[in-house]
Design a protein that fits this description.
Blueprint lengths: L10 H16 L6 H8 L3 H7 L3 H25 L4 H16 L8 H9 L4 H24 L6 H19 L3 H20 L1 H8 L2
Helix pairs in contact: 1-2, 1-4, 4-5, 4-7, 5-7, 5-8, 5-9, 6-7, 7-8, 8-9
Length: 202
């Protein structure tokens, strides 16, 4: 039996994947549409028919990254049963990401830093992504029985770890953030005896 041919990747997806790799490695402003065209293997005419401008391509890349982040974090958290450990699994997920070859920090922070002042659409989407992350944390905090005010505190630890890991070129920031998160969680539990009691009965 002859092998089945590999399904052809949608041209728009090829362009987004190529742009994502280039933007993340070199920065958005340093990459031209010609660079994306060459990497994706499409004509310039085809590229502009799919994405009329660079901002529309940047937004498509950010949408891809948002889906990857949300799905990856959800899978990492859902593999853990104990609510407190589910919160800490967020930082274990960060540690794995930080250790990847080519890690250059958060793509949304990078995009906001480059284009936020000149592209309201990119700035708004970066803010939307960060709000979504806080919403994920708020849901985990509520499941663990803590006050929702703990969520933004844990989010700041995660955001700071991303920036620190990118600048230092080391995944150690995830471990530091995890230990700080444990301290915040323990303090929150000590302020609410009901939460502590429920944890002790698990």
């Amino acid at each position: 039996m002859l092998p089945r041919p590999e399904p052809e990747v949608d041209p728009a997806q090829r362009v987004v994947d190529a742009a994502d790799e280039l933007f993340y490695a070199r920065g958005i402003r340093a990459v031209g549409m010609d660079d994306v065209r060459t990497a994706a293997g499409v004509s310039l005419k085809r590229l502009y028919s799919l994405f009329p401008g660079k901002d529309s391509l940047v937004l498509a890349v950010l949408r891809k990254r948002h889906a990857m982040w949300t799905e990856g974090l959800t899978a990492a958290v859902e593999s853990i049963e104990e609510p407190r450990e589910r919160l800490l699994a967020v930082y274990d997920y960060l540690a794995e990401w930080f250790a990847e070859d080519g890690f250059r920090g958060c793509g949304f922070i990078n995009a906001f830093g480059e284009l936020g002042p000149t592209s309201p659409e990119v700035a708004d989407y970066a803010r939307e992504h960060k709000r979504s992350f806080q919403d994920q944390l708020a849901a985990l905090v509520a499941e663990a029985g803590f006050d929702v005010s703990l969520a933004p505190q844990l989010a700041i630890l995660a955001e700071g770890a991303q920036t620190t890991a990118a600048i230092e070129g080391s995944p150690d920031a995830a471990g530091h953030a995890r230990r700080a998160a444990e301290t915040l969680i323990d303090v929150a539990a000590s302020l609410d005896p009901g939460v502590s009691d429920s944890r002790s009965r698990r």
